[in-house]
Amino acid sequence: MLSSLPIVDLAEWRSDEEEPLGARDKEWMAAPGGPWEGTWLFKSPRTTGLPELGADLWAEFIAFGIAQEAGVPAAEVRLAIRHGHRGVISRRIEGDLAHGNELLAARNPNYPVAEKGPVLGYDLDAIEAVLRPYGGSESGLSAFESFAGYLTFDALIGNTDRHHENWAVIRNDQCLAPTYDHGASLGFNVPPRLRTPADSVSSRARSRHFPEFHSLVDLALGVLHRVPLEIRDKWLSRVAGVAEDRLHHLVAGVPSGWMSDSARNFVVELVLANQRRLTL
User: Fold this and answer.
1) Long-range contacts, stretch 38-43, CB < 8 angstroms, 24+ apart
2) For the chain, which terminal residue's Cβ has fewer other Cβ atoms within 10 angstroms, N or C?
3) Does 69 lie in the same domain as 50?
């Protein structure tokens, strides 16, 4: 259970390589052994633009716990300390990864592979086409059916950053990789004075990478209408199954001093508001 796990101290870990993707300092770290054996990506917190320093850390940590509750395959995330500084670590997804922008560029030579923000040609039609040859991240699903689940999960946690490098396939396994990088979620950047009512925050949340949809919930429902009814029902049932008491348990797993009490209450109310909007 997440709340019973300690913060991981990286004092004995060795630096492996820098990670070029993403907007903040990231570095691959190799664990010396024990329960954390393997390679993990250490992420430092954003230093500007957030109402609480480290809000992106608790957002990513809690999002992983919610993914577990909802049965969404996701890269493992833990809170960590390195050289006295707080961060999170995310376990490396094994295999030969091809990110979304690589797949889309292989299909369309004019695709702006290095562009940030909203990208021309990045839409559900194109994503469905490039994922067609691949299996899902869990047995019995196609890659696009699993991807529909990721966008539904995004709507549940308010993840606004599903850009073309924030999903991938595992080439050697010919399947969609588990979802990863959920720091831009759970209202992490909403100032305390704007956190209520949570329903209002929920209705305003949208993905700038899919500007044709008015909200994250609209995007989720849009992609779910592209998959068979039984797959749509599967994902909505998983979303509905995330219980309020489990949400309280997950936010309680963030240590004192890492997250304000007002943020803890807000996160629970926001996820419940998203859940209601998805399952009405």
Assistant:
1) 38/91, 38/92, 39/91, 39/92, 40/78, 40/89, 40/90, 40/91, 40/92, 41/89, 41/90, 41/91, 41/92, 42/10, 42/80, 42/82, 42/87, 42/88, 42/89, 43/87, 43/88, 43/89, 43/90, 43/183
2) C
3) yes
pLDDT beyond 60 at 3: no
Distance of CA 163 to the CA centre of its chain: 11
Looking at 73, 93, 113, which one is the last position of a domain? 93
Domain ranges, residue 64: 2-93
Verify that 18 and 38 share a domain, yes or no: yes
Residues 223-244 have pLDDT tens digits of 999 999 999 999 999 999 999 9
